[in-house]
Q: What sequence folds into this?
């Protein structure tokens, strides 16, 4: 999950290998994509939630995303953020953590961040939030194999 | 810079392109609009810069640019760093 | 995984949280602190959920929420600010200082500065929509898939199968005039798919380059005139390809009000590629007639949007969008997105076309089609058109190429005025049954019926007035003899 325009769907397509089902969330016109990830003998259902800014719902997309989190109690949420805008995207991470949902933070669009000369102290960020952090540039495929591995490790290793 | 007396806060739409300022209040019409602005990162206390006034309002907060229409831009009460007309281009670069 | 993470919201909010926590005894999938925070921010859905679980404590909970609601600044604002401050602290601590000045670049600036932005916009739309979607999709690919594959292979094959294995009514259901293969599948796959497929590719390209928000913001002022925000530029332009698909895409608009206005305008005054093709064929030889058509349809579009904006209740459309930097897209990602969208289209829209042909087949079998056609003769004659045109109007609603071909056949016997009136009325008239079906699916029966109930009289009234107006003008100026 994450805000609009952070590259969620590319990551989602990578994890699911394109085996995707898109359907309207019951009673709404918001689309939710679901797919299966089968890797290293583990089969997981992956859900691509609509782009949202906050868990306090204003739009139908936010309402649907929150209902998904509320009713389906995900084993792990992958919060994808635009690394350049970490500061503006962290509040949603906070809300996921406050809700008590297990989370893996993915700083995406690292290629653009690097072009701006930005660098990140990953371990300091991991300490500050108490969750694992991954750097990725999904559009180039960077960091995605590692992301898949961590997802498997987390879910299977529980 | 910054010793001049700051003008009082006024809607974002009153200030020229290039102005830096601090959001002091949001005159949102309802809770939904307020929540929308907050979620976009437009929060009282946040500093922003007006990049363009046309073809619609474009502001910069951190590394994000947001396009807003007149209605939303008018709800943002901004306390500018400088008197209007003074370029703020060289600051915070 | 997240033990001990906490944002401090300051004494006032923390005080309210501390009062709420002991009252929240139910079983919640979120931590109770998060539930309390949502309640304090006025979350109605969560309030209803807690009310169900907390029985006797509901009154107390509501009192606390009410107390918090009276705070100034409102809790939502205080909470957002506390989160923002914490995010700022963390980000500053973990991010290295940027070396490069962020954002901008010449191309970026050129796409926003109005004197260059609008010409660039025109170029993007010309090459993207007109040349790529209109040229490659609507002509070359349609000619190939519909013209070659279907007409030479699929349709004869289905007819052959039907004739050999099925009794006449059932054979018609598969391969007759309104057959599920010859009409439903041919429309969904042969005519619409190439158009929306190329459109999806163009759309994904705009998305991945970061141009899409620019398109929306440049169009915002124009869209506001018809009660829509800049976001609506996407379904409205898609409507020029296929109104059925565009009606589905109105989902991307923020409010129900905007979705209804956009659905209404698409149905009334946005001609789809099939209609555009017909109108160009009919009026193309007469610049004056084409000009009148553009003027009338354009005026109706603006007037209808403006009126809908004034009449419909609810807050006016507002526009906000994040403006990403322009970037070079990766072709693989565009292809992947396009493929996912095409898959979605096939699942969502194909059944609509198949269902439509089923309904038509049924009406035809029962002889009801002829009945409706004869009922239409009166209104058609009042437009100054020959009664034969009634069939064309009805079939145009069900099956566009029939309407087109029929009108084309009548072309020789119609005067320029009659042609202009017929083309204008057909444009405004509900475009096709598939679109009507999608309107019901997306907006509900009531809204869809209301829209149709407005459109049909408006279309005829405009046609009627146009006929009389042009008729009297012709008497003065001599337009009629040509």
A:
């Amino acid at each position: 999950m994450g805000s609009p325009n952070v590259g969620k769907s590319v990551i989602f397509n990578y994890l699911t290998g394109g085996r995707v089902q898109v359907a309207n969330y019951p009673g709404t016109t918001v689309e939710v994509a679901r797919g299966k990830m089968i890797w290293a003998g583990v089969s997981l259902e992956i859900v691509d939630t609509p782009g949202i800014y906050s868990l306090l719902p204003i739009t139908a997309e936010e309402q649907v995303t929150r209902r998904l989190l509320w009713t389906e109690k995900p084993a792990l949420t992958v919060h994808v953020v635009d690394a350049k805008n970490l500061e503006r995207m962290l509040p949603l991470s906070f809300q996921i953590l406050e809700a008590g949902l297990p989370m893996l933070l993915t700083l995406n669009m690292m290629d653009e961040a690097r072009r701006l000369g930005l660098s990140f102290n990953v371990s300091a960020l991991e300490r500050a939030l108490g969750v694992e952090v991954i750097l990725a540039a999904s559009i180039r495929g960077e960091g995605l194999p590692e992301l898949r591995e961590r997802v498997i490790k987390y879910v299977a290793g529980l | 810079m910054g010793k001049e007396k700051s003008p009082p806060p006024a809607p974002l739409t009153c200030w020229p392109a290039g102005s830096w300022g601090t959001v002091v209040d949001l005159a949102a019409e309802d809770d939904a609009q307020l929540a929308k602005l907050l979620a976009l990162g437009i929060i009282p206390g946040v500093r922003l810069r007006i990049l363009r006034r046309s073809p619609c309002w474009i502001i910069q907060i951190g590394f994000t640019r947001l396009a807003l229409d007149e209605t939303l831009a008018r709800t943002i009460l901004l306390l500018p760093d400088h008197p209007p007309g003074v370029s703020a281009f060289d600051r915070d670069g | 995984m997240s033990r001990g993470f906490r944002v401090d919201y300051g004494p006032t909010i923390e005080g309210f949280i501390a009062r709420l926590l002991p009252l929240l005894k139910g079983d919640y999938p979120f931590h109770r602190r998060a539930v309390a925070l949502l309640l304090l921010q006025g979350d109605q859905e969560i309030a209803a959920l807690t009310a169900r679980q907390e029985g006797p404590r509901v009154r107390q909970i509501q009192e606390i929420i009410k107390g918090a609601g009276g705070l100034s600044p409102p809790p939502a604002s205080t909470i957002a600010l506390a989160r923002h401050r914490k995010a700022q602290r963390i980000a500053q601590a973990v991010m290295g200082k940027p070396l490069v000045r962020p954002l901008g670049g010449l191309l970026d600036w050129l796409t926003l500065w109005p004197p260059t932005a609008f010409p660039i916009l025109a170029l993007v739309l010309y090459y993207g929509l007109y040349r790529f979607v209109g040229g490659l999709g609507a002509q070359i690919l349609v000619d190939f898939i519909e013209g070659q594959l279907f007409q030479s292979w699929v349709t004869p094959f289905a007819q052959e199968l039907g004739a050999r294995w099925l009794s006449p009514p059932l054979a018609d259901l598969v391969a007759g005039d309104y057959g599920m293969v010859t009409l439903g599948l041919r429309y969904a796959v042969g005519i619409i798919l190439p158009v929306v497929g190329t459109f999806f590719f163009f759309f994904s390209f705009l998305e991945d380059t970061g141009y899409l928000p620019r398109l929306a913001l440049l169009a915002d002022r124009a869209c506001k005139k018809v009660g829509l925000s800049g976001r609506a530029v996407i379904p409205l332009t898609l409507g020029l390809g296929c109104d059925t698909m565009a009606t589905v895409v109105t989902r991307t608009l923020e409010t129900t009000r905007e979705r209804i206005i956009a659905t209404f305008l698409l149905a009334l005054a946005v001609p789809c590629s099939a209609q555009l093709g017909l109108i160009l064929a009919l009026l193309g030889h007469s610049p004056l007639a084409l000009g009148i058509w553009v003027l009338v349809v354009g005026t109706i579009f603006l007037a209808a949007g403006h009126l809908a904006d004034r009449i419909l209740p609810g807050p006016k459309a507002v526009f906000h969008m994040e403006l990403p930097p322009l970037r070079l897209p990766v072709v693989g990602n565009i292809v992947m997105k396009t493929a996912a969208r095409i898959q979605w289209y096939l699942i969502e829209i194909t059944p609509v076309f198949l269902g439509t042909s089923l309904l038509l087949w049924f009406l035809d079998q029962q002889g009801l089609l002829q009945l409706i056609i004869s009922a239409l003769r009166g209104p058609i004659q009042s437009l100054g058109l020959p009664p034969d045109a009634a069939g064309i109007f009805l079939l145009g609603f069900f099956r566009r190429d029939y309407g087109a071909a029929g009108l084309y056949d009548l072309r020789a016997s119609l005067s320029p005025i009659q042609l202009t009136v017929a083309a204008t009325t057909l444009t405004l008239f509900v475009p096709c049954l598939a679109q009507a079906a999608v309107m019901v699916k997306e907006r509900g029966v009531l809204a869809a019926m209301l829209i149709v109930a407005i459109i049909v009289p408006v279309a005829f009234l405009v046609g009627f007035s146009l006929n009389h107006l042009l008729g009297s003008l012709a008497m003065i100026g001599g337009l009629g003899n040509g």
